[in-house]
Design a protein that fits this description.
The chain is an alpha/beta fold. The protein has a single domain (9-139, 166-199), classed as Vaccinia Virus protein VP39 (Rossmann fold), CATH 3.40.50. The protein has helices at 9-12, 16-35, 52-60, 74-83, 119-129, 143-150, 170-177; strands at 42-46, 66-71, 88-91, 104-110, 130-139, 181-187, 192-199. It has a 7-stranded mixed β-sheet with strand order 3-2-1-4-5-7-6, with helices on both faces. Helix 3 (52-60) links the parallel strand 1 (42-46) and strand 2. The longest helix is centred in the N-terminal third of the chain and has 20 residues, at 16-35. The protein is globular.
């Protein structure tokens, strides 16, 4: 992962259209949360960045759920903890989570896997700590890069956002997760793929 990546601007500097797209993204996430909320007691969000996503997710969760978060970068852990003082934010690698196996009813991994050199190893670790459900998202390709180029961004990289190492279409991403999870439902709010997954028994 590129340690200079900017995870803040989409929340703080987006246009009205950009903010509308983000709202639609979290609307789809909330749909998944409500679909499995009766079975959730312990919840973990992995790769929280500065904690903006944590703020959004916290508002979706039923009262009484145990919600924790984690982030690899120490500087971002501090920012995420400051932004979410009532949620425990731990520093840990997605490749080696300091968690017991099958310890969380629901695991979030939003906008993380595309940044990783070894997403397969990360997926294995997500499945290890997950007891029931996992919600994952990635940019939807090639739409993501086409939209970047239409707005004049990252032209030399053919629209690829700096730091994005992996690129999946919706069908490719479903195939990628199939080794560890069953796909319960798919949502594709422009320009993302979001999956509700159930751990394979």
């Amino acid at each position: 992962m590129n340690l200079t990546e900017n995870f803040r601007d989409k929340y703080t500097k987006s246009s009205r259209i950009g903010l509308w797209l983000i709202d639609r993204f979290y609307g789809a996430v909330n749909h998944f949360v409500q679909a499995c909320s009766m079975e959730m007691k312990t919840i973990l969000e992995i790769g929280v960045g500065e904690g903006y996503s944590t703020q959004r997710i916290r508002q979706m969760l039923p009262l009484g759920t145990q919600f924790e978060a984690s982030e690899f970068r120490a500087d971002l852990v501090r920012l995420a903890q400051h932004r979410n003082p009532d949620i425990r934010v731990s520093q840990e690698s997605i490749y080696a989570l300091n968690r017991e196996s099958s310890s969380f009813d629901l695991v979030f991994c939003l906008e993380v896997l595309e940044h990783l050199e070894d997403p397969r190893a990360a997926l294995t670790e997500l499945a290890r700590v997950c007891r029931k459900y996992c919600i994952v998202s990635v940019p939807r390709e090639p739409i993501w890069r086409l939209l970047n180029m239409m707005r004049g961004k990252y032209i030399r990289g053919l629209g690829n956002t700096p730091g994005h190492l992996q690129h999946w279409s919706t069908s490719e991403f479903q195939g990628f997760v199939a080794s560890a999870f069953d796909v319960v439902e798919v949502r594709t709010p422009l320009p993302w793929t979001i999956l509700l997954l159930r751990k394979k028994s």
